[in-house]
Each structure stands twice: as C-alpha cells, then as structure tokens.
Amino acid sequence: MVFQPVMPDLVAEVDADTALDLGRHRHPVRYLRLRDDMDPGDVRE
Fold first, then answer.
1. Domain segments of the chain as ranges
2. Which of 6, 22, 38, 45 is the least buried, fewest Cβ under 10 Å from its Cβ?
C-alpha cells in the first residue's frame, strides 16, 4: 500500500458527544452536512 497524502478541500459539520461509558464513547459521531460557506482554513484544529 502506498501512502498518498491529501489536501482537505471540504468542511463537514458533525454531531459528536464526549460522554464515555466504561472507557468507550457512548454515542457515535453523526454526519450533518457539508459546509459550503467555510474553507478548511476557517476550522480550528
């Protein structure tokens, strides 16, 4: 397998919960929508 780095060019909004239950995340991350009004540089790390 060859490593091929990619450049982010889309921003997606997700719904995430930080609750833990026995060391595991209680709820899965859910995709909400693409954010056409944002650039990847607008997102904080």
1. 1-45
2. 45
